[in-house]
From TrEMBL:
Species per Swiss-Prot/TrEMBL record: Endozoicomonas elysicola
Transmembrane spans: none
Protein name (Swiss-Prot/TrEMBL): Putative zinc-finger domain-containing protein
Domain Putative zinc-finger: 4-38
Lineage per the UniProt record: Bacteria, Pseudomonadati, Pseudomonadota, Gammaproteobacteria, Oceanospirillales
Highest taxon listed in the record's lineage: Bacteria
Gene3D superfamilies, A to Z: Anti-sigma factor, zinc-finger domain
């Protein structure tokens, strides 16, 4: 069974499609049980999306703010 630490390490690989089905399955099982990691993965995805956008085009202040709000106050998210 994966630990929270493993999920944090694998989050980047998940976004980059570097995990095989077995790793994805293990990760999904953990996310079903672990509220902390669900939040972590969601925030990770939001940040990465924003980072990719800001390379090709300028992210608006509103977009940056909405991600920062999610990080500062995950309950809203
Ligand atoms: Zn966890």
């Amino acid at each position: 069974m994966l630990k929270c630490r493993d999920i944090e390490r694998m989050a980047g690989q998940l976004q980059d499609d570097e995990l095989n089905w077995r790793q994805r399955f293990s990760m999904r099982m953990h996310l079903m049980m672990c509220h902390h990691c669900r939040r972590f993965v969601r925030q990770f995805a939001a940040i990465k999306k924003l980072a990719e956008r800001s390379v090709s085009e300028q992210a608006s202040d509103d977009e940056v703010q909405s991600v920062m709000d999610k990080i500062n106050d995950p309950q809203k998210g």
